[in-house]
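Lecture 7 notes: from sequence to structure.
We start with the chain below.
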Amino acid sequence: MSDNADTKSQNGLWENIKVIIQALLLAMVIRTVLFQPFTIPSGSMMPTLLVGDYIFVNKFAYGYSKYSLPFSPNLFSGRVLEFSEPKRGDVIVFRLPSQPDIDYIKRLIGLPGDKVQMINGVLHINGKPVPKQPDGAFTSDYSKDPGVNVPVFRETLENGVTYDSLDEGMGRGDNTQEFVVPAGHYFFMGDNRDNSLDSRFDVGYVPAENLVGRASVIFFSLGNDTSFREIWKWPTNMRWDRIFKVVR
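Predicted structure tokens for the same chain:
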């Protein structure tokens, strides 16, 4: 009887180990091929994305490049399995061209061949101003970017994509040269126009290969500089209205 009990115990242990291994492999496949979680570390995409938002990024939206894989191995160049093209207005995670180990998240403004320019705080694409209407005010709960009653403007792109942006007044990014987006590259800007390092500045044009995926949904959100590890602060600092909010 004891030998049979030991055998059953060992079989049960092995079955549990196999289940754990399978679960880990499934999680790795999902993270590598389908969706990857990201944390928003700065206020450059306010008010669309806030510091403390945790989002899922759709990695198969635009196909795959080496940056879709862990450690970015040089297995191939360019993109493969391109199911769809990036669309103007998409919120996208990409690798910084000058430091490809760093992830950035911004809004896609300029497609290959586009002419992009800021004139007196108004975004112009291919010579046409993007409609910009006042849409209230925004106050941040992030200590390093404590904006209070920052003017919000609703912008509507030619393809119908509409979103809010912040504009605190005239800054160095409100009047720029005309940028002509090269073939195979994209032009990105943050929705927090006066507090975003983007294609207007050192980021420059982003190669198609550097795109990681499209921001899909906010699955968790903590305000007031609350760390994910500070579980005891979750009840009072959880942004309940942002959980499972689709990113647009």
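Points to note: The longest strand covers residues 99-110. The CA atoms of residues 145 and 225 lie 11 Å apart.
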